[in-house]
Write a structure and sequence with these properties.
With about 375 residues, this protein is mainly α. The chain is built from 14 helices and eight strands. About 65% of the residues lie in helices and about 5% in strands. Helix 5 runs antiparallel to helix 10.
Length: about 375
Amino acid sequence: MTETWFWVAFATILVVMLAIDLGIVHRRAHAVSLREAAVWSGVWVALSLVFGLGVWIFLGPTKGLEFYTGYLIEKALSLDNIFVFVLIFSYFRVPQQFQHRVLFWGVLGALVMRGIFISAGVLLLETFDWIFYLFGAFLVYSGFRMARSKPEIQPSQNPFLRLLQRVLPITDAYHGARFFVPNRDEEGGRSGWCATPLLIVLVLVETTDLIFALDSIPAVFAITRDPFIVYTSNMLAVLGLRALYFLLAGVIERFRYLKFGLSAVLVLVGAKMLTENFVHVPVGASLAAIGVILGASVLLSLRRKVVPEARPVGPRLITRGPDAPATVVSLDALSPPSIAAGDGAFAEVAPDAEASLDGAGGRGVPGAVPSLGVPRSDVDERAG
């Protein structure tokens, strides 16, 4: 009965916080300041800690430790999402005032996808015991793969985007904060809809979370099989991801060794799952080991001076008015092999670009990469 009430309480918290976030604080698109990001990061972390304390009090110390360990794993792995988000936003030069909108809808999609994954995982574990060891082997493999991998932005190679292109044409510019704009024929009549590049960015964000969920959810199953603990720790970590992105996006490259710390955590958790029947590791010991590994990787990163690597930069997507005519572009033009040609195609600055950005709640700077503040001359050198 207590756990039922906890489900109700968590659902209520979820709805209220999302309503405050979208309906009040971020009702109008605007660039999220560092101070605002820090406050909201603190709010989400504090809310998670208080919720974990409630789990500890009402469901017992073991469940409380399981929640905190699962939350720490999810929060740490979400930092790897931020690396990729920075690449995506800088590649597509997403204006700052639209980034929160993308992440908000991305998080809503993540809540649904992760809920489905967790339900499927619980069902599989209850039906087939050997799936537990398969999860463990997959985590060990993912850990080694993460240490060697390097994220790339290849829109034309994304199967979800290729499917989207078959259904909807894609415009060559942002149209305010819209994901869709009407497609008009030569006579000015409406003939269907077009997807804007902002929708492309959203699909890439969702795809990124889908890939990372395949690692993070099995990792929490190594700590507990309680669906309530797995789901709540996942959701609270994901809900704080947007604020954490705006807080760390400018300095995330300093955490050079964090990726190796995360890969070590995945290998450790996977090994724990594979040896569960032979060696029992208390939850408290797992929490301490994960904290030490992550803390060491962060400290090593901060002690080493890092020269940022040049990021891939895509076409010069500009912002036109929300009701401006839609000009269709091929998905291939957004991918690295076509950047040189694409830059020429997208280089023109629409007369109403600056005005449309002002109307969306922020001052547009057509000559900069919005998420990083990189001058256009800098971008030209990299792209060329």
